[in-house]
Amino acid sequence: MEVIATGCIVAPKGFQAGTTYCGIKTIRDSLDLGIIFSEFPATGAALFTTNQIYAAPVKLSRKVAQKGHIRAFVINSGNANACTGEQGYKDAEEMVRIAGKCLKISEDEILVASTGIIGRPLPMGKIAAGIKAAATSLGNTPTHGNDMARAIMTTDTKQKDIAVRLKINNKDVIVGGITKGAGMIAPNMATMLCFLTTDISMPAPLLHECLRNAVESSFNRITIDGHMSTNDTIAIIANGASGVNIISKGSELQVFQDGLNYVTSYLAKAIVKDGEGATKFIQIDVVGARSRSDATKIARSIADSPLVKTAINGEDPNWGRIVSAAGYAGVELNESTTNLYINDILIFAKGIPTSCDLDKLSTSMKNTDINVRLELGLGDCADTIWTCDLSHEYVTINAEYHTYASVHSSSSHQ
Amino acid sequence: MEVIATGCIVAPKGFQAGTTYCGIKTIRDSLDLGIIFSEFPATGAALFTTNQIYAAPVKLSRKVAQKGHIRAFVINSGNANACTGEQGYKDAEEMVRIAGKCLKISEDEILVASTGIIGRPLPMGKIAAGIKAAATSLGNTPTHGNDMARAIMTTDTKQKDIAVRLKINNKDVIVGGITKGAGMIAPNMATMLCFLTTDISMPAPLLHECLRNAVESSFNRITIDGHMSTNDTIAIIANGASGVNIISKGSELQVFQDGLNYVTSYLAKAIVKDGEGATKFIQIDVVGARSRSDATKIARSIADSPLVKTAINGEDPNWGRIVSAAGYAGVELNESTTNLYINDILIFAKGIPTSCDLDKLSTSMKNTDINVRLELGLGDCADTIWTCDLSHEYVTINAEYHTYASVHSSSSHQ
Predict the structure, then answer these.
(1) Is residue A191 flagged as an active site residue?
(2) Rounded distance, CA A54 to CA A225, Å?
(3) Using one digit for the tens of pLDDT, what is the confidence trace for B306-347?
(4) Looking at chain A, which residue has its C-alpha nearest residue B398?
């Protein structure tokens, strides 16, 4: 597997992207609408938020994804089309209808996604014009790909994209991806979105299984603030333009799965690194658990503790907070078999603090990447969760935002 | 029921308290050890943290509480005696042994509790001298009671105590209580503690049931940061000095239960109001749920969302964050039957935002007390959770604390 230097969402063969600024975002000339298009008929798969309150585009895209054929993604940023009732659903349908006409494909092959402010009707005049403009600007240069990565951003500070080249049956297969998200919900500018393209060919059910596996080991392993969005969407199109066709499990599929996992892991970690106010990337490894589910619960309990997150923000190796967060995860523990390493330094062994090198430990806390490894000594199961710290900047971003700023004109934070 | 103006932990008949500064805390002359003592044999009951990592005093006090006879509490602040291994347990036993000798009662009737830093051995020389000094200073004036409330404080900014007078069988019964806690774990200075005294007489199993009921509607309804401590302890002594004896359920017991509930609710709310960095007291009411457990899950999901907490800190009526936090609580919802009120103003009705008076709503967000009321429209069950906002001050308190400050002398935050 090779990571492509200028890799982007249109790196796989037979894909184009087009973007525009149509006026949904208040910052002029920041791209806010984009289309990703396969030149060939393709299979597709998608996974969505499990939030019981989900947006109109999620509702519509669930139906599209079930049919297994996707040729295009149409995505807007700046407005999530969530909590918008029946009108919101009609607007999502209208977006797909307009895109279908422009792209000359069936609306049943188009997946729609929205991200941004909740509870405001979509400005459909602007969006209709935007879809037409984006469709007109389709192309497959790195610039097209980069613009596409930027068009889905909201409070993200960095563009997040990647492409990898795989060798399957002596042919090149490329997987490309983009993602966005800075809080599970950033300042009302909601959502984690991820779009993937590949020029392999694969039946939709198999593609769905690969996507589920990849998400399980990447996006399902991250948390910024434990707050799940109403709009989360991850989707893939496989158009077969590489000439490689896989119809069943085996070593070829594994090469593709590994490549896809690499792409989704890279993108998931990129979200954590760009988390709201994040100054540290934290990997939490829990090993020696009785079950994977136990390990997951404990790793998430540590990752979501504001006391652990603020301690790491303050570069403090506060093992007491980590151990006690493990203790309330709802999993039976044995203090006397528990070991804790912070940045590979054993600080807590068999239930009591060690006399480790505190200078070395304190210095290591200044690193941007922090590793927490908890050994339970109870079994052979493990899990890993990636998260970030909780900083003053997080509070600033999320406390200074004003929902009704545009009504009261009392704030510029939108 | 009457709230006693200068009410404190020694307001019920036959109770004394004694305190001292023995040098566990680094701030000189801040009280750090206390004893609450019943002059008469008494029944007792206690509830403890459900954290799998629990402190030595919790382990020992669980055994004491099971026997149902408690005549004294001995409590130190400044050191939690948690994650201290076998030596920690021996130290807890030694505390009880010394207290038993000083008070001339069986060590089986003494409940011990500790709060403060995790993972450091107790300074037993200081503590032995402290227990003797506290036992010597026992008395039942309001000053004794107030000093006792202060002796258990760590990062608390306010002393938290109360006493109420009840009429049962034409006799006065008094219930007194003190509590401490500012984070579920404050800057490594752990723990929520609550001690209650009453001069009613009651068999231990009945007293335990009353305590469990009271805790269920008070301390189990609060969250500061969702981080459960290793040392949480709530305990009550009933010494019968009022001459009122209750041996079974009925209207007399209900008067006592109501009084006890009032005391524990008052103390639980006092903890939230004194929460680390708290500027707002938030009551979250979830009604119309299919089950109480559903209502609880949703109320907790909202209360623990850092996005909701920062929005309220910023005085922003951000209903999107509240509704989406309800959506990921793991409970089936119906957007089209959901209503949300913030400070009694209907902002979200049947799945879409209302055109409510935004000026009135924004102004109401400046109140110290904020009410969030979510109507699910699915059933008849409800629950209420009390919490506070997430502020810059919370991050400052918890990020600036340094675990090894005393080793490196690099910080004064202990």
Answers:
(1) yes
(2) 18
(3) 889 999 999 999 998 899 899 889 899 999 999 999 999 999
(4) A310
Cα separation, A301 vs B225, whole angstroms: 12
Q: Where in chain A is the domain with CATH 3.10.20.340?
A: 281-390
Of the candidates A191, A230, A338, A387, the residue annotated as catalytic is A191
CB atoms within 10 A of CB B251: 7
Chain A residues within an 8 Å CB radius of B297:
none
For chain B, residues classed under CATH 3.60.70.12 are: 2-273
Q: Could you tell me the CA-to-CA distances from B311 to A214, A232, A411 in Å, in that order?
A: 34, 21, 14
The yes or no reply on domain B281-390 and CATH 3.10.20.340 is yes
pLDDT in tens, B1-32: 999 988 899 999 999 999 999 999 987 779 99
pTM exceeding the 0.90 threshold for the entire prediction: no
CA gap A53, B324 in Å, rounded: 6
Q: ipTM of the assembly?
A: 0.81
DSSP labels, A253-290: HHHHHHHHHHHHHHHHHHHHHTSTT---EEEEEEEEES
- For the domain spanning A2-273, the CATH number is 3.60.70.12
Chain A hits for B228, CB-CB cut-off 8 Å, are 324, 327-328
Lookup: tokens for B271: 């903890």
Residue of B155, B179, B191, B198 marked catalytic: B191
Say if CB A271 and CB A115 are below 8 A apart.
no
Rounded Cα distance, A134 and A131, in Å: 5
- Closest CA of chain B from A177, distance in Å: 26
Contact A395 B313 (CB under 8 A): yes
pLDDT in tens, B377-388: 999 999 999 999
